[in-house]
Write a structure and sequence with these properties.
Blueprint lengths: L1 E6 L2 E6 L2 H22 L3 H22 L2 E7 L4 E7 L4 E7 L3 E10 L14 E9 L8 E4 L9 H17 L3 H5 L5
Antiparallel strand pairs: 1-2, 2-3, 3-4, 4-5, 6-7, 7-8
Helix pairs in contact: 1-2
Length: 182
């Protein structure tokens, strides 16, 4: 995720996987074009290329191409988390006063069930919001994205959110005692 707007009253972080979107669109168009060319020779072969190849590309776009946007707005006192694919749109709104800070979650790649010792497993991360529980319980973790990655973008997003919150509210004493997110 990268910061697209940073002012004292508004912070916007966005992520859009342009490379994946372009590659999957080209894949879809290539199979659709081949399907249309083959369609003039044989109906079944053309429909297979058009529907199966084009359908796989379209399904890939729906699964892997997600626009993610996090808006922290001091003017309205809200945190808005938007996620959009070609098949769905999800928007979650929190009160800014419920946001304690951002943190990072880490795990090893390959899932928890991977037992093959010869397989190299990397540490992957995702940014997460730490929210106050309305019932007075322990703080809740709300992931910004479901996707873990090995880049440093999640650490940059966590730093940007915590810095913005610090500038807005003043230093958070619990951040100084906590280890920095990776």
């Amino acid at each position: 995720m990268k910061v697209t707007h940073n002012s004292p009253d508004l912070l916007i972080l966005e992520e859009m996987p342009w490379f994946i979107a372009i590659m999957l669109s080209l894949f879809t168009l290539a199979f659709a074009a081949i399907g249309l060319l083959v369609l003039s020779q044989t109906l079944v072969g053309g429909l297979v290329f058009l529907l199966v190849g084009g359908g796989m590309g379209l399904a890939g776009i729906g699964v892997f191409v997600e626009r993610l946007q996090l808006i922290l707005d001091a003017g309205t006192g809200r945190v808005t988390l938007r996620s959009r694919t070609i098949f769905r749109h999800r928007e979650t709104v929190f009160d800014l006063s419920d946001l304690i800070r951002a943190t990072g979650e880490s795990t090893l790649s390959g899932g928890e069930t991977s037992t093959d010792p010869s397989r190299v497993r990397r540490r992957v991360h995702r940014p997460t919001l730490l929210l106050r529980d309305g019932a007075g319980g322990p703080p809740l973790l709300h992931p910004i994205t479901e996707i873990y990655d090995s880049s440093r973008s999640s650490a940059r997003a966590v730093r940007a959110i915590n810095q913005w919150l610090s500038d807005l509210r003043g230093p958070d004493p619990t951040l100084d005692s906590a280890p920095p997110p990776r």
